[in-house]
Give the backbone structure.
Amino acid sequence: MPGFALMPTGNQSGRTAVFPVSDYDLDGTLESGQAFRWEVRGDASEGVIGDQWVRLKMTTAGIHAEAAAPQHDWHWLEEFLQIKVNIADVLQTFPDDEPMRCAVASCRGLRLLRQQPWECLASFILSSTKQIVQIREIVRLLTERFGRRVIAPSQSGPTHAFPSAERIAACSETELRACKMGFRAPYLLKTAQMIVSDVVNLEDIRSLPLSEARERLLLFPGVGRKIADCVLLFGYGFPKAFPVDVWIMRALRELYFPQKRKVTPQRILEFSERHFGPYGGYAQQYLFHYMRTKHISNNRDKAARSAQ
DNA sequence: CTCCAGGCGCCTT
DNA sequence: AAGGCGCATGGA
């Protein structure tokens, strides 16, 4: 059991703590498109979890955390970072095929975070047909305008909590559109109103089987299969939830169905549920990150060639 | 200029 | 059931 070896060391009731980890790519994970509010400043990343500001930095001893105020209990951070997950055990469940070997080799230390369901749900409603940098901008505007200020050092990155469903439900559609979210504004507004009026209870979803949990999330406007699976995976930790977006669809097509003309999206979705095992969600994140970094480096190469 | 972005809802067949 | 299209906004 990982219990004692992974207890935070140093002064636990102070503003800082260290969490020993292995195979944990902190920066890569924070910027991998699961969460949208982490800002790199110098050699650290700064973010807000719940109403806690925190600065994280990788050191030889592990993940070094600095909060804005003294902490008695770092459980909120251990939960967010999923410190206790043994990633080797997870990787061992992946199918032993060429695509997965490549993805694992190129994304060493990639992890899944565990976010709060409401923030995760709202963020991914805002994500549809947006690039990650734009999602970050929308979320930043939303938090700065409607989120409560948190205790944070001056000259820091994010300084606001994610706005509550109650606060969003009290917004006008116009106020939300002013955060550049366009046609997603009514989706977010209605979803917040459904939560406030308890039409769907986000806490109840925790204890449901995967398919029933998914059905609940699909009741929200602006939430289809892909966004529901993102929330199930990143917000609730259902390990088999497997979000299929354009990147993953392309990856599965190219890597598992090469030179096949008629592969329907339905067929690919069935394959994804069957093929990737009990931690399919982790496998999905490795594939996603693998495809995306490959794409980014291809673009860099293209730019370099055209500059010559 | 056009095309597309961690999709979804709604309208056609 | 399956396929097509519009939707805001911004970057390549």
In short: Strands of chain A lie at 16-19, 39-41, 44-49, 52-59, 62-67. The domain at 117-236 of chain A is CATH 1.10.340.30 (Endonuclease III; domain 1). Residues 129-131, 133-134, 137-138, 177, 180-185, 264-266, 299 of chain A lie near DNA strand C (CB under 10 Å from a C1').
